[in-house]
Amino acid sequence: MQISSSRPAEQLYQLLLLVYPKTFRDAYCQEMTQTFRACYREARQQGSWGLVGLWSFILRDLVASAFVEHMKRFFENTRMEDSMLLPQFYLDIAQRTDTGRTRPSNEDSMAAVVPEDPQVLAKKGALFVVSDGLGGHRAGDVASEMAVRLVSEAYYQNESAEIAPALQQAVKYANNEICRLNESNTQEPKHTMGTTCVAAVLQSAAVYVANVGDSRAYILHDGQLRQISRDHSPVADMVRAGLLTEEQARTHEKRNVISRSLGDGAVEVDTFTEAVQSGDTLILCTDGLSAVLGDEELRAIVEQYGPQESVEHLIARANEQGGPDNITAIVVRVSV
Asked: What pTM did the predictor assign?
């Protein structure tokens, strides 16, 4: 093989380099081309046999080294995929909803979503959502069902690996859709539907929470129960300001009034991030539970029982206290 001009030879050499992986070419193509130029000039001085020897060496080296590079990339990708598939935690999940003792129907909704695709689970985590349709409003059950469904769909359709922003955007999307449906209602008198929403994602060693309204997310860690979410209500504001105790808040005349809800125009969605360890328990619930049971009783039940027994006992205790509202709870225990 004899090529009289170095330019065509260099172009041919660069075409041959395409057999290497792209990452390898990006790193070494320029350096290898410079080396080729020097070797080609020297081979031309040796005549036709020099060029034949050069191209023979290049082809042998290219086949062997390109194969090695492709195998290296294959095993690197396999190791990365395997690490993504390894679950860091096991989740024991239980959920239950109950109409309670006084409401004619159940306007709460809930969902627990654990993706079957291991890569999606590794990237996006497991999602839990609880919503409480606003009592006295038109179609509160529709609003709560929409919130749970739309948050779940929007969160997993968002390909971003940034969990908290994706979760916040999913809740805002649900709010926009409920608002849009409210605006399309032409009936008189004009009634709007609304709902609370608390959503949590367990991913890697963290829990990400987004909430609007007074449905809550708690974490039980080392025997200590702590509320992660923030209640959006005048009574909660008074408790935070030290004007009311938790006990007083449970019987306050405005205890059922909330200051934020999905379906009520543009809404601010609070987000929180907490570390999670093996043995921790995540609890999501509506105020049909949290407004009736004190934190200490909630803690004692969840610490004593597994998730399935916990949700049974929590709802039974709320009903024993009169069951004044719909009651919904999701309990998730994390273990290695």
From this structure: 0.72
